[in-house]
Write a structure and sequence with these properties.
- The structure holds 2 protein chains of 2 kinds.
- Chain A has no helices and 10 strands.
- Chain A is mainly beta.
- In chain A, strands 2, 4, 5, 8, 9 and 10 form a 6-stranded mixed beta sheet that branches.
- By secondary structure, chain B is mostly beta strands.
- Chain B has no helices and 11 strands.
- In chain B, strands 2, 4, 5, 9, 10 and 11 form a 6-stranded mixed beta sheet that branches. Chain B has a 5-stranded antiparallel beta sheet with strand order 1-3-8-7-6, with no helix packed on it.
- Chain B is globular and about 40 Å long.
- Chain B starts with a strand and ends with a strand.
- Classes of the chains: A mainly beta, B mainly beta.
- Chains A and B meet through strand 4, strand 5 and strand 9 of A and strand 4, strand 5, strand 9 and strand 10 of B.
Chain lengths: 114, 111
């Protein structure tokens, strides 16, 4: 079956431009996570959606970052007025339920801000 | 906030040697997962441990969950170059809570 799909796989943008990253989770997965991973580093939590509950936005680094999820399907992560420090791989993961369910990751979007 | 600390951050060994990666916290987790990530890909689940004191073996990999469910270890016997990657532990708190990831251990196995 289809896994988690992220698009685009690579994105190069100029400093100051807005970007939108997309995540298609596995069908039926109620939990969805966004993480940021800088080169050679671990996963930095950004935001977590669980069903119809209010999202946990505690990891968003600034108000330039926002994310939405439509029901239990597609999610988009938007970065406004991009900065060079935003350059990283942005990973999306989904799981069947929250808590201890295994996460299924996409291959990420590599964002480069020039 | 539940925090997970992994050690070491980086490990370089020769093929055939053994290695152990540690994942520690002051918090209790209902379960703990280990993932491996290879370059250009997302992390992939290796194992989930749920019972204090539990030991799980996957071929040359042995995973242990501490009795108090605050820590875990991953031991690789006779490491191979294919074991090279970023190893991540992730803990789940009470039901409904998000997973918390450790900072990762980068393992390099040289032929």
């Amino acid at each position: 079956g289809a896994g988690v799909s992220q698009s685009p796989s690579n994105k190069v943008t100029e400093k100051g431009k807005d970007v939108e990253l997309r995540c298609d989770p596995i069908s039926g997965h109620t939990a969805l996570y966004w993480y940021r991973q800088r080169l050679g580093q671990g996963l930095e939590f950004l935001i977590y959606f669980q069903g119809n509950s209010a999202p946990d936005k505690s990891g968003l680094p600034s108000d330039r970052f926002s994310a939405e999820r439509t029901g239990e399907s597609v999610s988009t992560l938007t970065i406004q007025r991009t900065q060079q420090e935003d350059s990283a791989v942005y990973l999306c993961a989904s799981s069947l339920v929250s808590g201890g369910s295994p996460l299924h990751f996409g291959n990420g979007t590599r964002l480069t801000v020039t | 906030t539940q925090l997970l600390e992994q050690s070491p951050q980086f490990l370089s060994i020769q093929e055939g040697e053994n290695l152990t990666v540690y994942c520690n916290s002051s918090s209790v987790f209902s379960s703990l997962q280990w993932y491996r990530q290879e370059p250009g890909e997302g992390p992939v689940l290796l194992v989930t441990v749920v019972t204090g004191g539990e030991v799980k073996k996957l071929k040359r990999l042995t995973f242990q969950f501490g009795d108090a469910r605050k820590d875990s270890s991953l031991h690789i016997t006779a490491a191979q170059p294919g074991d090279t990657g970023l190893y991540l532990c992730a803990g789940a708190g009470a039901a409904g809570n998000k997973l918390t990831f450790g900072g990762g251990t980068r393992v390099l196995v040289k032929p």
